[in-house]
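Input record, target 12 of the design panel.
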């Protein structure tokens, strides 16, 4: 694998090692190390997608990313202009433009990345989404499909804002949403992946909030409805998943969401959700000035909880489909502390 260092001074448009990916392209066997110039916070100068490898995948055909790692630190400060910011360790956003039956596949990829953002009192009108591996999946066109398998994310995501903006974060994927409300038959499949990312979303405002804040151990928010969707045999090992909201709302819904697997399940038909979580994950939503402290617990019924000893036995992972052809369980030790845990590794990615 080739190792490439990527240092950023500001972001706008589609930013990453590659800005975007053409139909039919394949990227493989890469290790990317990302950082901000002199450790300073980046200022978003216009609408922006950032991914360590790709800012945007335009799904106008089949494309594949495989055997790739991304590591490093990304810091964001208050933007200078722009209405949205989408950040992922590997890919900013997977979208399609007037395309039917396109497919994007991510396999044998991982990120070990620290993402920090203090957007202060910025008044952007659109979404601010952060994911350990992918910032956002937003298909446009019938029959499009995104597949993520045999991949994982570690590290931390800590994002905050002092204004009422849409702010979501997920350990693996920040947001999964339709790009066009008329689009139908959209499918995504996420299988045999895990997240061990510490996730925290914090929003402090003075008025009544109308826009979601959501944190999820695997996915920040899902609002795509389709029986063909699948999040299955995935594992969350996150040390914590937290949302914090402060607002004088007089009892109104603070739009604060939090869960071990999917922070906000904003659809009644997300497809198949059948996954596993480490017991003892610190989760919670807190709010000030309101009686409502968060929602979204309905997705917890689709999670099987197991203790650290169970996850420290490789046979249990193999039973979930984490096969030894792709995964290395040497020294496996799972605890509720990332510093003392030894997580499964990918055999085909040389730097992990």
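The sequence produced for target 12 reads:
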């Amino acid at each position: 694998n080739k190792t490439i260092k990527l240092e950023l001074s500001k972001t706008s448009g589609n930013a990453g090692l590659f800005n975007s990916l053409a139909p039919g392209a394949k990227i493989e066997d890469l290790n990317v190390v990302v950082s901000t110039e002199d450790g300073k916070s980046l200022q978003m100068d216009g609408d922006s997608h950032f991914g360590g490898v790709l800012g945007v995948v335009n799904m106008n055909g089949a494309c594949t990313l495989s055997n790739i790692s991304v590591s490093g630190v990304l810091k964001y400060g208050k933007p200078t202009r722009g209405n949205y910011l989408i950040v992922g360790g590997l890919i900013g956003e997977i979208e399609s433009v007037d395309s039917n039956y396109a497919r994007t596949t991510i396999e044998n990829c991982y990120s070990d990345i620290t993402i920090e953002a203090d957007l202060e009192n910025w008044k952007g009108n659109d979404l601010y989404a952060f994911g350990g591996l992918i910032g956002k999946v937003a298909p446009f066109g019938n029959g499009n499909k995104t597949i993520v398998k045999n991949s994982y994310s570690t590290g931390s995501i800590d994002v905050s804002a002092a204004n009422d903006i849409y702010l979501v974060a997920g350990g693996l994927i920040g947001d999964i949403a339709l790009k066009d409300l008329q689009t139908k038959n959209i499918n995504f499949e996420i299988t045999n992946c895990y997240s061990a990312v510490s996730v925290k979303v914090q929003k402090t405002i003075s008025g009544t909030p109308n826009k979601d804040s959501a944190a999820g151990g695997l996915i920040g928010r899902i609002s795509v409805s389709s029986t063909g969707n699948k999040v299955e045999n995935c594992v969350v090992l996150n040390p914590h998943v937290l949302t914090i909201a402060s607002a004088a709302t007089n009892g109104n819904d603070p739009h604060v969401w939090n869960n071990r697997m999917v922070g906000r399940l904003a659809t009644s038909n997300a497809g198949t959700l059948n996954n596993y979580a480490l017991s003892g994950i610190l989760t919670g939503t807190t709010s000030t000035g309101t009686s409502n402290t968060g929602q979204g617990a309905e997705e917890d019924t689709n999670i099987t909880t197991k203790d650290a000893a169970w996850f420290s036995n490789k046979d249990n992972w193999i039973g979930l489909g984490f096969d030894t052809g792709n995964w290395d369980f040497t020294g496996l030790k799972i605890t509720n502390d990332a510093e003392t845990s030894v997580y499964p590794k990918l055999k085909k990615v040389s730097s992990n």
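The first strand starts at residue 2 and ends at 8.
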